[in-house]
């Protein structure tokens, strides 16, 4: 986090843009909050790399992981069944659930809730987070799974 720009350090969040060049090539780059454009296509998205004190490191929310997988796998996740299938596949990475009511996790919950666009969550409910360091592994493993699994 020490290499992040001052605003990102203050907010404890770094935005990362991912884009798919072709079915097998994915690129990413860190962008500043002021460079964020509220635009998502079928080949590009922006997710949040969030520094959480209680986690002692950076994390990504399950909402952002699903957005990223939707781009990478060229999926339409408008069907609840498809989202739930991907969520089940992600459970093997043992996400940590940040509960609103849990005093030890409460600051992390409100930190994530406070972020403006792009929002790393959909609604105000318990949030699952994964270590940011697992993002490459999750993407590779999910990408290699048969689509019908």
UniProtKB/TrEMBL annotation:
InterPro entries (UniProt xref): DUF7082
Pfam family, any one: DUF7082
Residue ranges of every copy of the DUF7082 domain listed in the record: 4-142
GO cellular component: nucleus
PANTHER family according to UniProt: MEDUSA (PTHR39463)
Name recorded for this polypeptide: DUF7082 domain-containing protein
Record organism: Syncephalastrum racemosum (Filamentous fungus)
Higher taxonomy: Eukaryota, Fungi, Fungi incertae sedis, Mucoromycota, Mucoromycotina
């Amino acid at each position: 986090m020490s290499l992040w720009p001052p605003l990102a350090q203050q907010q404890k969040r770094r935005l990362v843009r991912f884009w798919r060049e072709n079915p097998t090539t994915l690129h990413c780059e860190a962008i500043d909050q002021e460079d964020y454009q509220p635009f998502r296509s079928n080949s590009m998205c922006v997710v949040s790399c969030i520094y959480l004190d209680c986690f002692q490191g950076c994390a990504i929310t399950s909402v952002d992981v699903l957005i990223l997988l939707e781009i990478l796998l060229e999926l339409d996740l408008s069907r609840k069944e498809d989202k739930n299938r991907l969520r089940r596949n992600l459970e093997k990475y043992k996400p940590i659930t940040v509960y609103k009511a849990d005093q030890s996790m409460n600051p992390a919950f409100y930190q994530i809730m406070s972020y403006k666009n792009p929002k790393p969550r959909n609604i105000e409910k318990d949030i699952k987070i994964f270590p940011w360091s697992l993002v490459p592994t999750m993407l590779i493993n999910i990408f290699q799974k048969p689509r019908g699994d």
